[in-house]
Amino acid sequence: MTPLLLGAVLLGKLAICVTAQVLAMLTPPAQVRFDSMDYKNILHWTPPTNNTSLRYYVQWKIYGEPQWVDVDGCQGIKKQECDLSDVTSDLREWYYARVHASSLPSSKSAWALSPRFSPRWDTQISPPALRLNVTEQKVVVRVKGPHPLVRKMHSKLHYKIFLIHTSGEEEVFKMDCCSNKLTLKELGHKAKYCLQAQTVITSQAKSSVRSSLKCVTML
Question: Cross-referenced Gene3D superfamilies, in alphabetical order (predicted)?
């Protein structure tokens, strides 16, 4: 075989190998993002195919650091989420995460990167839960606050209590996070009122959505 012909044969084999490797590459996961509520930081993604045998591998790093780190408990998993709360808990830092898919024995995807994430600014705070006790011309409001981790991280937490009249008029009351109860007095006889609550973090000018409406009729 002439050197020219031999070279052509080798190039052809090389092209076949490269093509096979390209075909073996999976499409990477899509829509990689953090969903964070009360500093529980969960990475979610969309699978690249309907193949239920895919396994996923997740890594994280601090913004500005070169080294990626495997997430314990999120190597070779089948579910499309990973809890990174323990490794992304520093409110001063920004983080990235990435995930790739693998199909045994050797096919795998490229890494798919999340947007930059800050637990301080990107977490959502849940509203408090209300418990109401109606007595004559007054309502005693008790509040169950958000996750204890939120209260631990923010000592200057407080709540807004919204008293909504049937006319639509609202009165707003401030309640310290450590208070046991708020008593609303001199309310109308047989009148109907609805109440909502909101968690407020003063230091970050951040607040939760309002809680669901709770309505009462006075005695």
Answer: Immunoglobulins
